[in-house]
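Try it yourself: sequence plus adenosine monophosphate, in.
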Amino acid sequence: MLKKQRTHFPRESERVSEQSQKPTMAPISFQTLQLNKQLLKALQEAGYIAPTPIQQKAIPLILKGHDVLGVAQTGTGKTAAYLLPLLMQLKYPKGTYPRALILATSKELVIQIAHSLADMAKYTNLRHVCLYGGIGPTQQIEAVNQGIDLLVSTPGRLLDLYHRCILNLRSIRHLVLDEADKLLDMNFWPQLRDILAILPGKRQHLLFSATMAPKVMKLTEEFLEWPEKAIITPQATPVTTVSQQCYQVPNVATKARLLAWLLTDTKIFCKVIVFTCTRKTAEDVAHFLRRQVAGEIRVIHANKGQNTRISTLNAFQEGTVRILVATDVAARGIDVSQVSHVINFEVPTLPEEYVHRIGRTGRATHTGKAITLANPAEAYYIRKIEELMRRKIMVAPLPPTWVDTATSFEEQQAMARTMDMQRQKEDPNYLGAFHQKKRKNIVKKSLTRSKR
Ligand code: AMP
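Structure, out:
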């Protein structure tokens, strides 16, 4: 990622609530966290004035060698919370094989972590390499062969290079799971289990995320012993800097028109991520918007090539792209400064993903707005999200003269079928009113038909 404007996070001692009742204590600074002068210099250059709450809590625990479970809101400095103590512990370059492994769920996140690492390690001689798929491994292999201290990788590429006997992992003493709950979910868990089996037994585990459901916590017991918890806010607490609202709309065509109507205001909606649930819908929505609104619009999803994904994120960061239409590949970890709005064109079916999506705005104390467009079949997921966040999402009124587009029979049927499935899920005795049928391509048809 490119250079971003740094923000002053409140120190623990500056935070209000119960803190103000306690006797005054010396403010915690990076110096009091006993970081070495190389790191302090790098932090000063990066514009970090004081440690954020998660940094204040996690850094001392990690330095003491504990396994740590870190939970804090999106955009509140989790990356530095594990990178700084890791760099302190590794101290100087040693040997050829990596001693710390940071696993992340996507190549964008790997690259972003590597950028933060480069910033923080710039006055140390520690060597790092990042590994991810989607490109040939030649350059990565060359970098690995030159000797490394820290490795940042996606699970897939790590296992690939390990099985080809290119990577030697026997010196790993620290393992970080960034977006830990995602790495522990069904999709990544088999790979993660293989990695855990390969790594040396004696190692420190550092798990960080903004969401860590109780059942995920339970899974961590398989490999963590007595972890210390650095929990700043209950899991899935959205940052207060993001205001949230939801428009209730009857169908895809109305969603599309409303989206175009909102995005017409280029001043207010100056840096926007529009999230969809599928790659196909992302492409369809971008195609629709290109005909309707000003400014460059780009799409990011797992099918886009490596270079396209990186250059798209860079252009969005720089501001040359106003609207980024994305699937959940961009929901986690991606740190683009001053995103004005996150718009959910489709409501995520996993409530945790909502918290991560909206966490792309309102980062590092900037303010942001999250707008969700929900049809009747998505009201169920809104309820699940509200339960997870333990707060309501305000319903916004439609513009005064707004007229909805009529819902096609096909779409009505599809929504009725989805709601039927939701009801079956909630009530095992309910047999359902529909036979399962293949989902038809309603989004594309509606967007092609829809005009503003
Ligand atoms: P993260 O949650 O690690 O993605 O960090 C979110 C943003 O906060 C990034 O842009 C970081 O550069 C920034 N950040 C992290 N820690 C601090 C700090 N102590 N002071 C100022 N900015 C920070």
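One thing you can check immediately is this: The first helix runs from residue 37 to 46.
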